[in-house]
Design brief:
Number of domains: 1
Distance between the termini: 11 Å
Shape: globular
Structural class: alpha/beta
Radius of gyration: 19 Å
Helix content: 40-55%
Strand order of the largest sheet: 1-2-3-4-5-6-7-9
């Protein structure tokens, strides 16, 4: 089982954006030291909890501060961007950092409708945008428009999804598939089955490749882990309630407005390894049985203290190594 990490560059209450980005860079370097396969940044706009709006700049910084780990956007939300600009930006990065740059492509906007309009991108066809982006990363054409740099870099593309529709698209295109179990785990098993059953080999990917993104909250004890994870629960609650504030410190007890709200959060946060190392090991063993077709786990999390977040990554890497060894 390969391991990787996803960051939304969380901005903790009291942090500046610069401090949040510096925290992200330390985390990326730590993940590289652990032997993670890739480190991605998720595009979001006008959300005070995240500093991940200019993903290509953050990707560039991570590449500069690391040596081996693959780095990409998870993802580039194509409704917000012209494919040519994406190809030029990431083609330039791929020219500077050979075989380390990749892109997860999404069809969502990663923001609210008002901010989406402010991004000034007219409605386009997602399938056509993907095909156009692939063409720009291919061979340079003697006539017409080329991404320079970009042409010939063949930057790898991954399809992002949180529903079964994305699974059909990834399978049809013959591209690797990344499912957002960290915030929408309800259809993950069905999506994986659809993708694997309908996959068509392509020049980009000869066989199905599935990544599940799961949250991590692993600590020395179960109690500490659940306390740490209350930061994630608050983040999701604030999102549902329309409260746009930075990431909040943990709480001993979460106050839900209703039983229905609690059930909704429990469903949304079900994609998680949580507890002590012993508890998380049992969860991982169950995961391997239930999701035998998963090739890689992309970890993410919102633990308030930086050192405890890094320790959560370290403990999970130990679990994987010991389970496989």
């Amino acid at each position: 089982m390969k391991l990787s990490a996803l960051s939304l560059v969380p901005v903790r209450q009291g942090q500046t954006h610069k401090q949040a980005i510096e925290t992200m860079l330390r985390e990326a370097k730590f993940c590289e030291e652990l032997g993670f396969e890739r480190y991605w940044i998720a595009e979001h706009h006008n959300i005070k909890a995240y500093a991940s709006s200019a993903t290509q700049i953050l990707v560039s910084q991570i590449l500069h501060h690391t040596d081996r780990i693959k780095v990409g956007a998870g993802g580039v939300m194509l409704p917000n961007h012209a494919p040519l600009l994406v190809a030029e930006q990431y083609g330039t990065l791929a020219t500077l950092y050979s075989n380390r740059v990749e892109i997860g492509i999404g069809r969502a906007k990663g923001t609210d409708p008002f901010t989406a309009r402010a991004l000034r991108r007219q409605a386009t066809n997602h399938d056509q945008d993907v095909a156009e982006l692939q063409s720009y990363f291919g061979e340079e054409q003697p006539h017409g428009v080329n991404a320079l740099p970009g042409a010939g870099t063949n930057v790898p593309l991954y399809v992002l999804g949180s529903s079964v529709s994305s699974a059909y698209f990834a399978a049809e295109q013959g591209l690797p598939y990344v499912f957002a179990s960290h915030f929408m785990p309800m259809q993950q098993k069905e999506a994986m089955t659809i993708y694997r059953q309908n996959f068509k080999p392509s020049q980009y990917c000869s066989k199905p490749y599935v990544i599940f993104c799961w949250n991590l909250a692993i600590a020395d004890t179960d109690e500490e882990a659940h306390y740490n994870n209350s930061t994630l629960i608050q983040l999701f609650l604030n999102e549902q309630r329309g409260i746009n504030i930075p990431v909040q410190p943990p709480l001993v007890q979460i106050d839900y407005h209703s039983a229905a709200e609690k059930r909704s959060i429990e469903m949304q946060t079900a994609g998680i390894f949580i507890g002590s190392k012993e508890s998380a090991t049992k969860q991982y063993a169950h995961f391997c049985q239930e999701f035998a077709g998963v090739d890689e786990i992309m970890c993410t999390g919102y633990i308030w203290e930086e050192e405890k977040m890094l320790n959560s990554y370290r403990l999970f890497k130990e679990i994987i190594d010991e389970y496989q060894g």
